[in-house]
Amino acid sequence: MDNNKIFNHFQTGIRGAETNYYTVTEGWGEHPFRAHPPVHFGASRREREKVTSLMSYKDATLPLQARVQSLLAQMTTEEKIGQLVQPFGWKMFTKNEDGSITLTEAFKQDVREGRIGALYAALRADPWTEVTLETGLSPREGAEALNTIQRYAIEHSRLGIPIMFGEECSHGHMAIGATVYPVPLLAASTWNPELYERMCAAVALETRSQGGVATYSPVLDIVRDPRWGRTEETYGEDPHLAAELAVAAVRGLQGESLAAPDRVIATLKHFAGYGASEGGRNGAPVHMGLRELHEVDLHPFRKAVEAGAASVMTAYNEIDGIPCTSNDYLLDEVLRKQWGFDGFVITDASAMNMLMQDHGHNVVETGEQATAISLAAGIDLEMSGYMFSRYLPAALEQGLVSPEQLDQAAGRVLEMKFKLGLFDRPYVDPQVAADVIHSPSHIELAREVAREGIILLKNDSQRLPLDATAAGRIAVIGPNANKPYNQLGDYTSPQPAGKIVTPLEGIRAYLVAAGHGKDVLYAPGCRIKDGSLEGIPYALEVAAQADTIVLVLGGSSARDFGEGTIDLRTGQSLVHESEESDMESGEGIDRVDLTLAGAQLELFRQLQGLGKPLIVVYINGRPVAEPHIDEQADAIIEAWYPGQEGGHALAEILFGDVNPSGRLTLSIPRHVGQLPVYYNARATRGKRYLEMDLTPAYPFGYGLSYTHFEYSEPAIESATIALSSITNSATQADQAILTTVSIQITNSGQRAGHEVVQLYITDIVASTTRPAKQLKAFQKIHLHPGESQHITFPITAEHLEMVNQALNRTIEPGTFRIQLGPNSAEGKTITFTVTPG
What we know:
Elements: H1 3-12, E1 14-15, E2 22-23, H2 45-54, H3 64-74, H4 77-83, E3 85-86, E4 93-95, E5 101-103, H5 105-112, E6 118-120, H6 139-156, E7 164-167, H7 184-189, H8 193-209, E8 214-215, H9 239-254, E9 265-271, H10 290-297, H11 299-306, E10 311-314, E11 318-319, E12 322-323, H12 328-338, E13 344-346, H13 367-377, E14 382-383, H14 386-397, H15 403-419, H16 430-436, H17 440-453, E15 455-459, E16 474-477, H18 503-513, E17 521-523, H19 536-544, E18 548-554, E19 565-566, E20 573-574, H20 600-608, E21 614-619, H21 627-632, E22 635-638, H22 646-654, E23 709-711, E24 715-716, E25 720-722, E26 737-747, E27 753-763, E28 774-783, E29 788-796, H23 797-800, E30 802-803, E31 809-810, E32 814-823, E33 826-835
Parallel strand pairs: 3-14, 6-7, 7-8, 8-9, 9-10, 10-13, 16-17, 16-18, 18-21, 21-22, 25-33
Antiparallel strand pairs: 1-2, 4-5, 11-12, 15-22, 19-20, 23-26, 24-26, 26-29, 27-28, 27-32, 30-31, 32-33
Helix pairs in contact: 1-2, 3-15, 4-14, 4-15, 6-16, 8-9, 8-16, 8-17, 9-11, 13-14, 17-22, 18-22
GO molecular function: beta-glucosidase activity
Keywords: Glycosidase, Hydrolase, Signal
Pfam families: Fn3-like, Glyco_hydro_3, Glyco_hydro_3_C
């Protein structure tokens, strides 16, 4: 809309009865624009031209920065601070009996005074928010609620600035009714970035359809100690794999345009080093040099920024004594100057509080100082908004913060709101939310991800797959066999009965559909953490009647949803108000060990004594180190937290309809004392302890199939590369192909299946100590029995780069070894040389 058209609107506008302002509707959507200052009938031409100029931020045809600067110039200091504040959204309203909402008076006042720019998790439902299935909002009601909030913000704030709604979407929108996908650790185990991109796109659609425009994912932390409770939220231990999935997540969430009605902002977290904390404790200090930080932990962040990620969240931890929330080297020098990031930076909840004396990091004495060093470092938005709203005004008055710093942060937030199209299309269609959320295609996608991510770790005597006809009676035993919430990750909303398919339900449904209708027996045996043995006799009694035992063990990230506990003698649910949660994984739930909690190992030992085929299924959020089970179980499946369709996917794998193709994205140790045990460690780590060597029980990249794949000897196009032919710039030259390596894969078994062909590179001699090997490429292929496929991998400059002592990415001359194989511990090798000339 041009300025003449705006001027005509003012000439023919309708004067507001209460405000004496003109209301403009055509071209602006549903909401009125309240001019500032007010324009009365009979105003002079100069006054009208001034208002036309002031209104230019509403003109979608103007350049983005022109709109931002036009709006910023009209804002008061309090309104600018308000744009940096993101309170908890679920506290801003109450639900009425008819499903509508009533806004709180405190929220209304904050809006009128310009003190809110964004809301965190307005639709989040879980025990923390105290939002239940009964008190929460359906998909349609959620969309209507966010429209109500948005409309009030636009119509009752002085400048009509829309609110930016941020939602949790780690493995599905954390709102009632949304599809619950497998956790990122399982999604990564698919080794299928294209599939993961589709999953992220589906999550974005469900979230945006209700009005959410930003999500606090993906989690790009590299896991160094899996005792850490948030391991389930990550992609594992490898920076290259994490980078590939990070790029897929950004593409799936953000698409081509943030203004699209099915896309949301991707927020990269936690920046940085969060997965390398001391002792695997959440938010603990990180002891890491800058060179390793750049080469490992920052790598997936850099690749995601290059892919266009619009937001970054700082981590709680410190690195070498510098808290990430106030680390100007990370947030300004690296993120913005070196990488060219042009989005906004948000804190994690209460991270800024931790900077103060007696709150954690203790690097400043006052709240004013905490806000000042955070803003100066590059923070633009505060989750919770507690510190900015309370202390930033005084920090400005004291001269700790400059007006220019405030304008910079507020401008970045406003710029993102324009990019999202919130000024032009602030509302959503509730019918779309009702149609797309938990649609049949999304349910099937959840099952597809689970199918490809579940990992077969052991299969002695080809015990699996089971023959539905010959397997006889099956007993499904274990604390995770039939607890719906235990199939899901930490960031999960309340679920209605029947939505989550447990292993027991999946197996029963499969056999009924197959026409066998066998009676599947069940007993819980024990609980996750409780050491009581009272349920084991009943489990033995049930298992004794079966021909095959499927034992479902592991962990739980289930918050206390009131699901109740289980009668260990009958398997029936018992609800007790004082129930101790089974949660042993998730945010803030870190462990000193990786063994099974409670009486689970004893349950295995006693079932083993029956002498029947015993198949163990782990459902959990971190690796399990149980050597006795590794040795004695007939088959072992790692299912992580497989999501709402996990029970169906597991049954399809158990009975052979699906050939397992998941591969580990972190190493599973034999003993917790081996930690850290990641595959890409340096040779200087040593060889062994007194009791055992350093090899894991299952290496990174490992996973079995129901068929067998043979690898030919690899071939390389050119075994010599001249260093002078390589341009060491940090952008497009990284992708220039220097040579290629190829190999032929043959399915020599009797079943069709997927193989994940993995390429590792070793820099044999370098000026700094190097990892024993590093994943640099992979490809997931599907082959029928007897079929072969010739795979070619390009070798680019980026594959050969290292970060030197000056923190520059460079390539040094020398010999490199390539390993091509099914996992990090085995494969065929070939070498090539980079010469100085």
